[in-house]
Amino acid sequence: MDTSQESKKQYEKMVETVSPNSPILKNCLRAFFSGGAICAFGEGLYLYYSTFSFAEKEVSLLVSITLIAISAVLTAFGIYPKLGKHCGAGTIVPITGFANSVASPAIEFKKEGMILGMGAKMFLVAGPVIVYGTLSSVLVGIVYYFLGR
Amino acid sequence: MELIKAFWVGGLICVIGQILLDKTKLTSARILVAFVCAGCILGGLGIYEPLKEFAGAGATVPLTGFGNNLAAGVKEEIDAIGWLGIFTGGLKSAAGGICAAVVAAFLAAVFAEPKGK
């Protein structure tokens, strides 16, 4: 126990010295500009799709689908992960990051088979997102049903 | 003008994620989960909708918007069909995004080869 505790401490020290002291302000600026750019692009798509005769909900869905498709293509060409290195949360938090989190393990685990490789690992990150999203929506639904109306 | 609003609101939401990433060492998966849940709760409380009105894609493109969608869907469904809407509303509203992500990821996996490591 003692030795493992000690080695853990040593390891933590090592990590601290090795990992670059991440300049938070710089990271935040990068996240701000990259994330903002993705959202502004989404807004541009929204304005563009609105010029056609779609209902508002259909436009939102089309914007999401477009961003997801673009993100999957960029992931397939290995571009999105490179962007991610520079942009941090700016490329994680938008829906493109969600799409990347689905596409990237799908590609990565293809070699383990189409069912238990690609099919299963696709939801490595998206799975928990959907699980906890669904649970929160049920919670919201229960509260809304009894108190909200 | 709409573009600028979307830019800075969306950018700020990403900055919150970046601060969490740097300060708490949360993994990106946890941040995605946290953002969806936060968006859903904020949507449930009716706080997210005004932000969406103001910022458009700045509020809907980040994953908090996905969460807000879940909440909006569940409310709508409850209004339409009653208590069973608690079960159907959330996933119904998320169906488009999830299905698009699955199809896009499948196609990406069929055509792309994993980068060697």
List the helices and strands and how they pair.
The complex is a heterodimer of chains A (149) and B (117).
Chain A: H1 2-18, H2 24-50, H3 56-76, H4 79-87, H5 89-92, H6 95-108, H7 114-121, H8 123-148
Chain B: H1 2-24, H2 28-44, H3 48-55, H4 57-60, H5 63-81, H6 85-111
Helix pairs in contact in B: 2-5, 5-6
Overview of this structure, please?
The complex is a heterodimer of chains A (149) and B (117). Chain A contains eight helices and no strands. Chain A has 149 residues and is mainly alpha-helical. Chain A has a domain at 22-122. In chain A, α2 crosses α3 (56-76), α3 (56-76) packs across α6 (95-108) and α6 runs antiparallel to α7 (114-121). The longest helix of chain A has 27 residues, at 24-50. Chain A is extended. Chain A starts with a helix and ends with a helix. The model of chain A has no long low-confidence stretch (mean pLDDT 90). Chain B has one domain (2-111). Chain B is mainly alpha-helical. The model of chain B has no long low-confidence stretch (mean pLDDT 94). Chain B is globular, with a radius of gyration of 16 Å. Chain B has helices at residues 2-24, 28-44, 48-55, 57-60, 63-81, 85-111. The termini of chain B are far apart. Chains A and B meet through α2, α3, α5, α6 and α8 of A and α1, α2, α4, α5 and α6 of B.
